[in-house]
Amino acid sequence: MRKTARRHQQGEESRLRILEATLAIAAERGYDGTSIALVTESTGLPPSSVYWHFRNKDELLAETLEYSYRRWRETAPTWQERVGIADPAAEIRDRMERASRAIVDNPEFWRLGLMLGLLNRQQEPAARRRYLEVRGETRAAIQAWWEQVLPGGDDERRRLVAERLARFHLTVMDGLYLGARSGRGWNLDRLVELIAAGVHAQALTWLEEAA
């Protein structure tokens, strides 16, 4: 039994090495630039070890996307409870500040996801399908948070406004990531402060228009 447990641990360690190496390669080179040969070169493991865990490159990248997503989720505010800030404007600013830090401090998932999202294939890769599923889950979580933050009133109206805000929220995160990675001179704190104030004001306007 000890030998079995040791083999299992070694197998899990090699699997994590493969996922880490694939994530680094895919985040730099994208889907097409990633290959099993590059992964084996990076890990020092034989191809047979990679194929023991993953049937092909597409499955490997889908699992890598899932792995990077779980790691990002641990630090992403999207999946955390509300922090108990009484002022909605301040809570929105706090949430967006923490979201911007998450994509800057742990950017691999966001970078790989955007690359997969831009793929255009006649036959859609499994990695891209999983990314779109993950993005939908993230949007739903953001929408649920907005529904709690928006002022009370008609539930259907608040849901519709929250759905619109969740889509915009994701778009803002995409833009902040691209901006922060494209060059220096980006003052993320100031940008987030401006965006949060504008989003809060627009949310109230939408709620009033729907009344």
Description:
- The protein contains 9 helices and no strands.
- The chain starts with a helix and ends with a helix.
- It has 2 domains: 66 residues, Tetracycline Repressor, domain 2; 141 residues, Tetracycline Repressor, domain 2 (Orthogonal Bundle).
- The protein has 211 residues and is mostly helical.
- The chain is elongated.
What portion of residues belong to β-strands?
A: under 5%
Shape: elongated
Q: What is the domain tally? A: 2
Low-confidence runs: none
* Number of distinct helices: 9
**The CATH homology group name of the largest domain:** Tetracycline Repressor, domain 2
Name the helicity range: over 70%
Give me the secondary-structure category. Answer: mainly alpha
Distance between the termini: 67 Å
Q: Which radius of gyration do the C-alpha atoms yield?
A: 20 Å
CATH class of the largest domain: Mainly Alpha
How many strand units? 0
Average per-residue pLDDT, rounded, comes to 86
Largest sheet: none
Please write the string of helix (H) and strand (E) elements.
HHHHHHHHH
User: Which topology of the largest domain does CATH recognise?
Assistant: Tetracycline Repressor, domain 2
The name of the CATH architecture of the largest domain is Orthogonal Bundle
